[in-house]
TrEMBL record, chain A:
GO terms for molecular function: branched-chain amino acid transmembrane transporter activity. This is Branched-chain amino acid ABC transporter permease. GO terms for cellular component: plasma membrane. It is found in: Cell membrane. Keywords: Cell membrane, Membrane, Transmembrane, Transmembrane helix. It comes from the Bacteria. InterPro entries: ABC_transp_permease, LivM-like.
UniProtKB/TrEMBL annotation, chain B:
Belongs to the binding-protein-dependent transport system permease family. LivHM subfamily. It is found in: Cell membrane. One of its GO terms (biological process) is L-alanine transport. Keywords: Amino-acid transport, Cell inner membrane, Cell membrane, Membrane, Transmembrane, Transmembrane helix, Transport. Its main location: membrane. CDD domains: TM_PBP1_LivH_like. This is Branched-chain amino acid ABC transporter permease. One of its GO terms (molecular function) is L-isoleucine transmembrane transporter activity. InterPro entries: ABC_transp_permease, BCAA_transport_permease. It is a multi-pass membrane protein. The chain crosses the membrane at residues 25-52, 72-95, 107-128, 134-155, 167-190, 230-248, 277-298, 318-343, 355-376.
From TrEMBL, chain C:
One of its GO terms (cellular component) is plasma membrane. Residues 4-252 form the ABC transporter domain. Keywords: ATP-binding, Nucleotide-binding, Transport. CDD domains: ABC_Mj1267_LivG_branched. This is ABC transporter ATP-binding protein. One of its GO terms (molecular function) is L-phenylalanine transmembrane transporter activity.
Amino acid sequence: MTPTVPSESLWVQVKTILSNGPPAYTFFTLYALISSLLLISNPRTSLTTDIIFVFFLLLVMLVYRSSVHKYFKHTILLFQLCIVLPYFGTLNPFYLEVATQAGIFVTLALGLNVVVGFAGLLDLGYVAFFAVGAYAWAITSTNQMTLINPDWVPLPPIAFYPFLIFGLILGTITGILLGLPVLRLRGDYLAIVTLGFGEVIRVLANNLDRPINFTNGSQGIREIERPNLFFADFVRNTLGWNLSDQKLYELFFYFAVLLIVFMTILVVKRLKESRIGRAWEAIREDETAAIAQGIPLVRTKLLAFAVGASFAGAMGVIFASKQLFINPPTFDLLRSINILAMVILGGMGSIPGAILGAVLVTLLDLQILPRTANVLRDLQRAGFPIPAAFDPTQYQRMLFGLLLVIMMIFRPQGILPDERRKEELIADEPDDLPEQPDQSDSGTPPPSAATPNGSK
Amino acid sequence: MAAEVNAPASARFGRRSPLEVLRTVFGPVFQLFLFIVGSALALSLIVVLLALMQMGSRPDILTRALTILPQVIIDGLVRGFLFATIALGYTMVYGVLEFINFAHGEIFMVGGIVGAAIGLMLFTSGMLAGVPVLLFVAIVVLAGMVVSGSLAVAVERVAYRPLRGSPRLVPLISAIGVSLVLQDVVRLIVTNTPMGFNARYHTPDFGSPIRLFEIDLGERVVPVIVSPKALVFISVALLMLIGLNYLVNATRLGKAIRATAQDRPTASLMGINVNRIISLTFLIGGALGGAAGALFGLNVGAVNPYMGFIPGLKAFTAAVLGGIGNITGAMVGGVVLGFLEAFVSSYLSLFTNGALSGAAYADIAAFSILILILIFRPSGLLGEATTQKV
Amino acid sequence: MALLEANNITKTFGGLTAVNDVTLTIDEGRIVSVIGPNGAGKTTFFNILTGIYKPDKGTITFGDKPIAGLKSNDIAALGMRRTFQNIRLFNNMTVLENVLVGMHTHLRVPFWHIIFKLPTVQREERKARERAREHLNYVGLDDKREELAKNLPYGDQRRLEIARALAGEPRLILLDEPTAGMNPNETAAATTLIRRLRDDLQLTVVLIEHDMRLVMAISERITVLDYGTKIAEGDAHTIRTNPRVIEAYLGKGAADAA
């Protein structure tokens, strides 16, 4: 007799059946069809639709985690993200907006994950690079150009496309400029300096309306240019879909973001599995040992910083253009913390983790919190003793702060941990005194090394 | 903590003579005094030089610069002591745990809120006018110390202690989380009380500003004034600094703290209860932060739940500037940074003819200092160069 | 021919002179030991050679190149690799990956090749893996290549450190107490391995060691440090009979062994 707990064995059985073989293929196909149908037949924004939407997105993760054939995975992903979701978006733009927003943050989370997760550098001012990209397009595509110099004119909308590359380069340059001086610093100093840098960028955005008006100060920049839809005629005439400009823009930004997300994932994955990824990991584990292998410390860290910053820079351009309006508070510390929370929630160093984290936090921000606020308001009206000033959408700091603390205490490796990072992040003996002094002892007698410790 | 560097050799063995105790306690204060005078003089000199350089195009600039100078120095002193008292909390915790207690700015803020709450309670009960000024100061400072100190200890228990032994990044992230949580918990509380988000800090009448002296410009007379509140702030801060120096450098407890900072495992082998010492460090740091908050709010006249963040960041800068882990260094760093900020915010717009607003760029100046110090002298003004061990 | 020449190296920490005016010449293809009582400055001297510390005074030439003041990673890239007294592996990486990290300076596909996943990347990676396995084979760890470094037994960790150092294809390898904490069997195996490094691979080996039997058996030249100063230099016989060495180091009862 094997002493198995029935419920557990059932769960394991279900999991095995659904991750392999014909039942899995049938299950996922049915899941995809049913969730799509449900979604399309419920185009109104409501709690039901929210739930279906989450259910719909959940498939992506389930398929990814299962062991069905690669091509099947891709087909499901393609069907859901490139056909059903955009079509549903033409029925209800709100959910497309949620998806686009989620995509933007997936890219940012992946970028920050390179810095924090791969290279182990805590960057608390990551949003600064996003801001640089966004402000670059906002300034050059609007009347700010003329305000800076009367002879200059705003860039034409078509410049948006090459400007994406420029945003990428600008992000990289900013990353290098900040990184060069500060990457020599120890980890915790780096956190503070990047935080300071984020503040500096925000203060600059707030104050560079004088003596020359670059950023329009706290007013922010309005009427940011959107790219021209060179494909509009094709869609309307050749494909015969009569969509308004507004809808076309929504779809355009969705697909642009999706494309960038896809490219980001590829790049990040390739880097992670390369000699560079190994060097990042080595530095994260033991800087001194890494240098002794000939790994140039500052240059390798700088690379992580620049890669992370480049994604943020490019996404900034899209963001500014999509939002049409940006102002300094868009890029405050809370935004950086937000992105950090995504990385930590999903799992530092884990690519699927960063994606999941970004989607979850975005859903939380755009759907769950406002819904909860509504529910609370209703309860309040019904006479429940809920403080009037308590609106969950206004208490993001508390929420994300709690999230960070709780994750660090109970699951520092995140929801979808990177296998390697998991070993590293879990403290060996958390409350053991006298404990192993961190990294800095040369005099330890060898016997202590006989039971090597994972963390330093 | 490198404070033990200041202690005479005999301090490590046996009892000391009262004279030696005086030396260990007032030595740092004297050092602080030197830095105050030194940085005030150096910055004034720079101002004069800058003014002389612009004399050609703007003949009145030297007079204008000089008339505000005494006021700027007083302002710098107030800011400096503010940063110094907050920086002590960072530096003590760092000295013992090598950990940046990110939430310390919020501990400071809570002190301010507590002070304002007391002021409001006395005000609504109508007793405020009857309370003697010094008694009021004592009450808010003590209350701020108790609440903030216990809060700091509680935070360490809940959010940091379980993470000891984890990679450095982990407690740091937890501390950031705590900082955000505290901001919003306090906001939730104050917005549901009569205090409101921007709470006014009611105080008894401190009397009118004291005129120190007057500068006679011929056509008008510019008075140099100092508010009684600022005077109270500076004196209480100074008293606390002396008290802390006594505690750390001349008592058994202080010795235990220094031992724990030096080498935690060994300290624990010597029978020191390391966990208690760590709690105590948070208590002292938190209490100082709380007192600073109560006094700062009193001085400014209003408090809000987000007010701790930027001063916290700057106080950390001050701690690094002075040499993190070094108590005297934190005070020196605070004062130097305070002067620097006061000078930048007062003179930047004067020298750029109003093109740049000094208040906004003072922040940037502070962070630039942080970056420069970390790059060129990471050990700080008073810190010893630490060598990496392999 | 001298591969490494360190002239008049001095290093002080605060008031303490850890290494005082030490001169050391190491000929190519030799096995050289640096010995001395605890705290004699041996590891500090290694740290100076490998660029972790900058010497206050003195010059170092490595194969005609002045290296004093160069960064640690540049020195490693020139072909000087080391192991650490208190083993410093990348604990949460696999055995194979540890060796691959050691090969970092020899992997040169440009960044953008990686981004675009050009065939060059895979080719280089495949070759690197083959080479890494050769190194692992050499120290006898190939069958453990997929294990995490931290899960290896102590002796294997020491060997992995050597394999990682070998992965850099060095000309000179510095071993900091390679047999510390080993039992006699392990020590014997380590001795054979060290000798093979020189005999098969023509490496120059410098070691810090406390096991006098090992030192006397395999070193062709021995340098003795005491309180940061070089007090003797020569072959095993010279050192054994040097009165200053006996006084400073072997004097305390170990003299009979000598």
